[in-house]
Write a structure and sequence with these properties.
The chain is mainly α. 73% of the residues lie in helices and 0% in strands. It folds into two domains: 59 residues; 35 residues, no CATH class. 3% of the residues are buried.
Length: 117
C-alpha cells in the first residue's frame, strides 16, 4: 500500500492538469476563433498555453500566508507601519515630488516668507 503513495500524487497532478488543459482547449476553440479570428488549439497547445501562462503570470511559489493578503503586500504594510513618522513624511514628500509634479508641503522658508508679507 505504501508504494502507491508515490504514484498517487503525481497521477492526480497529471489528471488535474489534463482536465484543466482540456477545459482551456474547449473554451479557446469555442470563443477565440469566432471573436478574434485566432486558430484552433490542439490539446498539447492548450497544455503549453496553460503552462506558459502559469509561468508568466502565476509563478510556482506557494504563499504561506493563507487566504489573506499576498506576501509582498503584507511585507510592505509591516515595513510602512514600523517606519517612524518623520521617515514616512519624507517618503510621502519624495513620492509626491516625483510622481505628482508638486509637493504637498511647502518648504519652511517659503511659508515663512509668505507669513512675513
Amino acid at each position: 500500500m505504501r508504494r502507491y503513495k508515490y504514484i498517487k500524487i503525481p497521477l492526480m497532478v497529471l489528471i488535474i492538469f489534463s482536465l484543466v488543459s482540456a477545459v482551456v482547449m474547449y473554451l479557446w476553440n469555442w470563443l477565440m476563433p469566432d471573436l478574434f479570428g485566432l486558430p484552433l488549439l490542439t490539446f498539447w497547445k492548450a497544455a503549453g498555453l496553460l503552462l506558459l501562462s502559469k509561468i508568466l503570470f502565476g509563478g510556482f511559489r506557494k504563499s504561506h500566508h493563507g487566504p489573506g493578503k499576498p506576501a509582498w503586500k503584507e511585507h510592505w504594510q509591516n515595513k510602512w507601519e514600523s517606519m517612524p513618522e518623520d521617515k514616512r513624511e519624507k517618503w510621502k514628500q519624495r513620492f509626491a515630488d516625483k510622481w505628482c509634479g508638486h509637493s504637498h508641503h511647502e518648504p519652511q522658508e517659503e511659508s515663512q516668507k509668505k507669513d512675513s508679507q
